[in-house]
Amino acid sequence: MPQTPVSSDSAQDSQDTITREINQLHADYAERRAAGAPAEDEVALDFAPYRSSILRHPTKDPRHVDPELIELTSPAFGHTDVGPIESDLTISERGEALGERMILEGRLLDADGRPVSGQLIEVWQANAAGRYIHKRDQHPAPLDPNFTGTGRCITDSEGRYRFITIKPGPYPWKNHMNAWRPAHIHFSVFGNAFTQRLVTQMYFPGDPLFPLDPIYNSIVDQDARDRLVAEYDHELSSPEWALGYRWNIVLNGSKSTWFEAEGDEA
Amino acid sequence: MNEETSRVALKPTAGQTVGPFFGYALPYEGGPEVVPPYRADAVLLHGVVYDGAGAGIPDALLEIWQADASGRISKEPGSFNRDARTFTGFGRAATDAVGHYQFSTVVPGPVTEGGAPFIAVTIFARGLLDNLYTRIYLPENEDANARDPLLASLSDAERATLIAVRDEDGNLRHDIHLQGEKETVFLEFRR
């Protein structure tokens, strides 16, 4: 690998440099796999092509512990916290958001395939032009006054969620010269245990920016990357109104499944 | 992925960084106030989140989850619309321009008899590709802390990264170092 860059936010490197580093790290993983190492399903914390990670990843191995009771339970959210209209990002008091309207549905599951019901999902995203409403976003693309790009919902008894939104555009960032993020929606999810807390990003099928993006590629396993990509579902599309995408979220296994399975609400 | 999901081992969805723009989506009014700061038993829990160069991280987000003062774990919703009565046990705070965070909360009691109480913490930040877990133990619980399996397994320097200190005003001060000499002990949970 080339020498480690000193500044975590310098936009000096070319896309070629970043792509070469990504490909090298993926080749290293392929070698580990070929030597019999297990699949790496989780994101790497130390992934230098994502320059901001250089000074922000722990260098020591995490300490393995048995979770305690507080960690095997989760904060509760309910309809006192989240109203039903918060899952529709396309409506505002003044009018409708611009862009390609989409229905996004899926299920929140644990590693045994059990639905995670009554839990909170929060989403945020850029608008159709690839611009976030956040004041730090300097991308000279139009803001949409009718689109804030934030939504919330509580999963139903089958772990289902459903958002109505606009397909986000790709947006430029300063990781390196001419850096563009693939279109994505940020997801923040609570499980049945605090240890299942997940923040991730959902992508769209066939994005040409995939091979170039250091964040997406920080998951070195192709199957694990594929699990972050929604599926276009024509059955879910609504005639003359919106396109349907489906994406399931699977939380890691937790001893809380035992805890909860014992079934008392006390 | 499809709907063939019952009773099969599924691969987990990998994490991705919270990115730079969570600030208009995740923090919310009252998020850092697990209990109102005017309550007699309220304690200020605060500190700085540092990167490997010793700079405060201005775009980090902390969440805490804890029992109440008697050690009871809440199952109450209401963290987004706090009513000043219900203890939900959950708090969320973004760091400010110099990496400082603060919560208003109560000192948790032991969840199990004789156990060392702690505040469970998870950390998100731009540049941090997945959330990290750690714990904040209380400095006054010396005996229980000495018996705690995690704390007992650590060197003195490591242990110090998990125990808050009382500052001169009686607040709980707890810094978090993502990297470097004082790197905080982060946790991976056995399943």
Task: Describe this structure as you would to a colleague.
Chain A contains 3 helices and 12 strands; from the N terminus they run αβββββββββαβββα. Chain A has one domain: Protocatechuate 3,4-Dioxygenase, subunit A. In chain A, strands 2, 5, 10, 11 and 12 form a 5-stranded mixed β-sheet that branches. In chain A, strands 4-3-8-9 form a 4-stranded antiparallel β-sheet, with no helix packed on it. Chain A is globular and about 55 Å long. The model of chain A is unreliable at 1-8 and 256-266 (pLDDT under 50). Helix content of chain A is 12%, strand content 21%. Chain A has 266 residues and is an alpha+beta fold. In chain A, strand 6 and strand 7 (179-181) form a beta hairpin. With 191 residues, chain B is mainly beta. Chain B has one domain (19-177): Aromatic compound dioxygenase (Protocatechuate 3,4-Dioxygenase, subunit A). Chain B contains 3 helices and 10 strands, in the order ββββββαααββββ. In chain B, the strands form 2 sheets. In chain B, strands 1, 4, 7, 8 and 9 form a 5-stranded mixed β-sheet that branches. A 4-stranded antiparallel β-sheet of chain B has the order 3-2-5-6, with no helix packed on it. In chain B, a hairpin with a 6-residue loop joins strand 5 (118-125) and strand 6. Chains A and B meet through strand 1, strand 3, strand 9, helix 2 and strand 12 of A and strand 5 and strand 10 of B. Strand 1 of chain A pairs parallel with strand 10 (187-189) of chain B, so a sheet runs across the interface.
* Distance between the amino and carboxyl termini of chain A: 54 Å
- The shape of chain A is globular
Structural class of chain B: mainly beta
Percentage of residues assigned to helices of chain A: 10-25%
CATH domain topology of chain B: Protocatechuate 3,4-Dioxygenase, subunit A
List the total number of helices of chain A: 3
Tell me the β content of chain B.
25-35%
Approximately how much helix is present in the residues of chain B? under 10%
Order of helices and strands of chain A: HEEEEEEEEEHEEEH
